[in-house]
Design a protein that fits this description.
44% of the residues lie in helices and 18% in strands. With 621 residues, it is α+β, with helices and mostly antiparallel strands. α12 packs parallel to α13 and α14 packs parallel to α15. The chain is globular, with a radius of gyration of 31 Å.
Length: 621
């Protein structure tokens, strides 16, 4: 039995990290302390002033643990890692406003590519951004690839080992074709370095290179190439012109502003790279009741730079934050050079921070209105639906649909909505195994049975590992089942639930003769719902989504059936060897005419397989 008073007396007077647990052993808060004895005891001291949020957190603490470290810096790093791992409910967590595009240079490859991504990882690649416009990112990437002839495919290439025929980009003079061995690894890397030079803010190099190529093409009277390089120069000029906010000090810095009200806060970040503003983004905190701006901004800097792939040399803030020296030391360790946290008081830098704060205020104001509308169409719609169905509450809803063409390729879909929002990571597809022909009821019986049996299996595994609080998508059962159809589909669902001894409310989503949502089938009768209500709109969205997801899966299976090569009929020739043959020959006719020696020279094809291919095309000759 954990005795809080007794454990508090055992706390050491050393730096470290403390972890608060509730009675179900869930981690609800992680914090760091210069002195664990003083800090942890302060939560349970009646004289300590606490926000409402912290008061609620303390009331839920069942037990705590702590980890002693050697320094405050080590405590900061460990705190960040644990918060990232557990996402505790009562820590101040960031909510990304959106997923912004980055430009990735895959330096971990022998022949790097430049392409757009929306997630960053701690790999050996180089990331630039984030940027606000995907269109601008794509234009920039297209310009760099066309100028320096970089490859855009993900073909694995080893120096000195040609890998198949060059693609259309080579013939259009947009790729130098490293796959054909047309360029050494060193020369290709030099081209990548020039492209990265542009991304680092040096636009003069690319303009100079393009101008030289244009003049060279003109001298040899290749006016088509000259026009191409002139157009690329114009494209480069447009991209450079977009970066309108400049700074005389051509350094890398983030400019951070904050705005807050009683319940929420927004942080705005401007990204300055090479003296140019390349993008911005904002983050919501949510549930900030009683927290001060200084506390929020301190937490933001710690959390944000734990996950970002790039740390600038300077971070400009509207006011000084707590633990500034420790945070600066930590960031310097990540970057490998000194990082400064600045609070400019006058001049251009002060005005940029002020601009970031004003932008944060604008976002906070606008998003308040958006969140009110979103609340109405999501949680509000769910509450309205629960009222119609006489349910106390429904957080998670799962909807199912069946798709086939006259019984061909029967498939099922499961879509998930939580608090009125789609959870696409929990969507599931089912290829029907036990039913042949057009029998939607039998198909639905299989889909629901497989869904819940898989859930039981997953629950047993998680329970055995003492991980109940980390339920996966199947182990988390719905609060409400929605079936695409009326009485028949509802009865099938009830039959499956009865067989598995589950008690989950079920209703059918009924459509009219025009295939539009009409109402709900509940407990033997159809309920009409006002078409202008948010509940009706939510049901329509769920039904359409279940149908779309099933149809897309069905179409993909149909198209796979239709894509068939004569090579698939050769025993021992699977997809990998078929691709190897097609890479080495221009057509099926060439394969058909090839000798055994020529076939066995293909990488991945043995002598025995070559003889099979040779014999296959000559059995009817």
């Amino acid at each position: 039995m954990f005795n809080i008073d007794e454990e508090l007396s055992k706390l050491p007077h050393k730096p470290g990290v403390y972890i608060m647990h509730d009675e179900k052993d869930n981690v609800i808060y992680v914090g760091k302390a210069v002195n664990l004895y003083n800090r942890v005891r302060s939560y349970f001291r009646a004289s300590t002033k606490k926000t409402l949020k912290i008061q609620r957190m303390v009331s839920l603490i069942h037990h705590f643990e702590y980890i002693v470290v050697d320094s405050e810096l080590e405590a900061l790093v460990l705190e960040n890692n644990l918060i990232k791992e557990y996402s505790p409910k009562y820590n101040t967590l960031l909510k990304d406003s959106k997923t912004y595009p980055y430009i990735k240079v895959s330096l971990n490859e022998d022949y790097p590519r430049i392409f757009m991504v929306r997630k960053t990882y701690k790999d050996k690649a180089k990331y630039y951004g984030p940027f606000t416009s995907a269109q601008a990112v794509n234009e920039t990437i297209s310009l760099l690839n066309a100028t320096y002839g970089l490859k855009t495919c993900n073909k694995v290439i080893e120096e000195g080992k040609p890998n198949g025929r060059p693609c259309l980009n080579f013939h259009m003079k947009r790729c130098i074709a490293p796959c054909r061995g047309c360029v050494s690894k060193e020369e290709y890397r030099n081209r990548v370095e020039l492209a990265m030079d542009f991304l680092n803010g040096n636009d003069k190099t690319i303009v100079r290179d393009l101008k030289a190529k244009m003049e060279e093409a003109s001298e040899r009277l290749d006016f088509e190439d000259a026009i191409k390089y002139r157009e690329l120069m114009e494209s480069a000029a447009r991209i450079v012109e977009r970066q309108k906010i400049t700074d005389t000090d051509e350094g890398d810095r983030d400019i951070i502003g904050i705005a807050a009200d009683e319940t929420d806060a927004v942080v705005q970040v401007f990204f300055m790279r090479g003296g140019k503003m390349i993008g911005r983004e904002h983050h919501h905190f949510g549930e900030t009741e009683g927290a001060k701006k200084k506390e929020l901004l301190t937490e933001f800097v710690k959390r944000y730079y734990t996950g970002t792939p790039f740390v600038p040399r300077e971070i400009m803030l509207p006011f000084e934050i707590d633990e500034a020296d420790v945070i600066a030391e930590w960031l310097s360790g990540i970057k490998g050079v000194k990082v400064r946290l600045l609070t400019p008081k006058v001049g251009t830098k002060e005005r940029l921070v002020e601009l970031a704060c004003k932008n944060a205020e604008t976002v906070l104001s606008k998003d308040k209105e958006r969140l009110i509308i979103e609340e109405k169409t999501t949680k509000g719609a769910m509450a309205e639906l629960c009222g119609i169905l006489d349910l106390p509450d429904a957080h998670r809803v799962e909807a199912f649909d069946i798709s086939n063409t006259n019984g061909f390729e029967n498939v099922g879909s499961m879509v998930v909505f939580e608090d009125g929002k789609p959870v696409k990571g929990d969507y599931r597809k089912f290829k029907i195994r036990s039913v042949e022909g057009p029998d939607d009821y039998a198909c639905m019986h299989e889909v629901l049975s497989r869904r819940f049996l898989h859930g039981f299996s997953e629950r047993e595994q998680l329970s055995a590992e003492n991980m109940e609080h980390t339920y996966g998508s199947f182990a988390r059962f719905p609060d409400l089942l929605l079936m695409d159809g009326g009485k028949g589909q509802v009865n099938i669902a009830k039959q499956v639930l009865s067989e598995l001894k589950l008690d989950i409310p079920v209703c059918g989503m009924v459509k009219d003769d025009n295939h539009n949502t009409r109402g709900l089938y509940v407990e033997g009768e159809e309920i009409s719902i006002k078409r202008t209500s948010e509940a009706f709109k939510l049901i329509t969205r769920i039904q359409d989504e279940a149908h779309r997801f099933a149809i897309e899966y069905h179409k993909s299976l149909r198209s796979k059936q239709q894509v068939h090569s004569v090579l698939d009929d050769i025993p021992g020739i699977g997809p990998a060897r078929r691709k190897a043959l097609m890479r080495s020959f221009d057509s099926i006719s060439e394969i058909k005419e090839a000798s055994v020696e020529r076939l066995s020279a293909v990488d991945g094809i043995t002598r025995e397989q070559a003889e099979r291919v040779y014999a296959f095309f000559r059995t009817d000759m």
